[in-house]
Amino acid sequence: MTKRNPQTLIPVPAAASPPAFRSYGRTDLRRLPQLKQLSRDRLQAMDIVARVLPFKVNNYVVENLIDWTRALDDPIFRLTFPQPGMLRTDHFNEVAGAVRSGDREHLLATIHAVREELNPHPAGQKDQNVPQLSDGTPLPGMQHKYTQTVLFFPSQGQTCHAYCTFCFRWPQFVAIKSGRFAMREATLLIRYLREHPEVTDLLITGGDPLIMRAKILSAYVDAVLKADLPGLQTIRIGTKALSYWPHRFVSDPDTPELLQMMRRVTERGLHLALMAHVNHVNELQTGVAEQALRNIRATGAEVRSQSPLMRRINDAPEDWTTLWQRQVRLGMVPYYMFLARDTGAQHHFAVPLVRAWEIYSEAIRKTSGLARTARGPSMSSAPGKIEISGVARVRDQRVLVLRMLQGRNPDWAYRPFFAEYDERALWLDDLRPAFGEREFFFEREAVAAGDEGDEFEAVAAA
Ligand code: SF4
After folding, report:
1. Taking the domains of the chain in order of start, what are their residue ranges?
2. Distance from the CA of 277 to the center of ligand 1, in angstroms?
3. C-alpha dihedral (251, 256, 261, 266), degrees to nearest 10
4. What superfamily in CATH does domain 122-448 come from?
5. How far is the CA of 3 from the centre of ligand 1 (A)?
């Protein structure tokens, strides 16, 4: 049974008692009843990992997405709960020893040292490519890497409803700075967009912007609508709320306000794309997730889905075939398969590039054309987004065929290039140019242009 919102006619289901959001962290590991079946050693190991890497889960994930009869093999358990292998043995032993010592200062110093060794700032993260206004005012809550797309990080949206174990943004979750993001920053965003009419897409990202109350998110979005920017075509919102808290679109107290805001965007003739981060088909099997999708689509918004390929979570071709098929059935558009970034627990989750391409191609061959909108596997690397297009034999040499999908130099986009075949390579840094070349074309051209190789972060998984 649904009730109608009088202002928008978007159906909002009448929930007798909408669930309240409850979040759990490290200190709940020994309290959650579902975890009582795990051994003491296992719980201890999870506690050690969660002291270094962020852990947050919530009641919806615990009660709906995990099969507790096979928890240790369950993909969503592995996606959200700390796994012992996420820390290298030496790091694990150092932290475990520091915990046993009972010396708090020593423990904090050990945790800090281990975090520093986990490459907390891959590809420059947020301190690089900070755009500026024409008067030199820096805009640290934004990034402008690819000509057409600006990323905007509202500071109230820099956390998530739960954390993914592999997340490359883990440093911001363990040392998050509180801070208020004043309306003035929306004003600066709009000034920047006015100065850059070439920008067609605004991506509001996080963390997860949908952690924000609708009122706060609407203040940003409405400011953009009010500015009436002629070049702006699309507002994208990166989120994992569909998977981690679908009640956001169904029964939260401010759900009607959120859906109304979304409807305002589409009624203004702008394209609104929810960039949903979905790792596994199990995230899309609940009734409330289906209802959330219906409510989102009723606003005129489109839902595109993206996810990294992760060992132990979604590294079988059938994981992707079923995910993409389910998404098409629910009206979502498969968009990207990413690769694990070189930070945090990459050693635990990364799939080698050659294997990633095999998984992608085997999975996509079993889908119809409507699911073949999924691009990948793609690395969000320093020079740009690079697709593994395949393995080929050229002049009797086995090579990896790659393609730059987006480059920091716009002229690089869609240029194919070749690397020596290497079954163990996990990332661009592991590859060598094929055919005896000394450099990849983008390295050569960056040097020729006097570019010192400043790095930037590419569009995130969520
Ligand atoms: S991958 Fe996305 S949803 Fe997951 S923790 Fe990171 S930012 Fe949050």
Report:
1. 20-116, 122-448
2. 8
3. 90
4. Aldolase class I (3.20.20.70)
5. 32
